[in-house]
# Entry
Amino acid sequence: MSGAEVSSLSPLPGAASSSAKSLYARQTTGFDARLARTVELLRAAVAMHGAGLLQSTSLGAEDMVITDLIARHALPVAIATLDTGKLHAETLALIPAIEAKYGLKVEVFRPAAEAVIHFVRTNGEDAMYRSLALRKACCGLRKLEPLSRMLAGRSAWITGLRREQSTNRAEVPFDEDDGQGRRKLNVLAEWSWADVWHYIEQFDVPYNPLHDQFMPSIGCAPCTRAIAVGEDFRAGRWWWEESSKECGLHATNKTIGVTA
# Structure
């Protein structure tokens, strides 16, 4: 199973002279208070859960902010991510970037190789495009199964979910039951996209260069495209579907739920 796929997506017109920071970063009213609240939430999570706490990072912009906060405030929080075998090379490059910049170890969980080989042999490399059921099955073996191993033995996990990301996430709380007896801590729930990029700009946080190519939400390479002006934040995910634009990682109180 290949550990990386080179991005085949090209910048939209004008992308070469733009960056996500220049497009989105701005300090909005109440940012300092939201930042302070997030730090307090992280400190409280450490105090309550100790070694049972984990940041599950998708390596997206929000999760990079959280990782920076963990490092900046010297919080003893383990960090882990999923390598689905279908991620962009630009996404995977953030793992050594985090380790070099912050001196933090990122544990990587991968799907069971035999299960992936069987799925591809049976359904083909492009199975996700042929039906919603096949796409969800692909997400299940590449994301949900390794996530279950990532979270085994943990009492709480930190995500980068925000209420602004989609209508499905509009009611995201700071703290919720993940349906598996763990606490799921959405410490950026009240942050805006402008807040995320203001923080990244202010503290020089590493981020995926695909964000500069109009991809606010980045998943597996075959299932991610750039969005056009005015499109929904998650419109570039599984764009060929009429669906809720979710993979099942955040189906709270139904299945285990990495910001994806």
The first helix runs from residue 20 to 24. DSSP finds eight helices and six strands in the chain. The chain has one domain: 15-223.
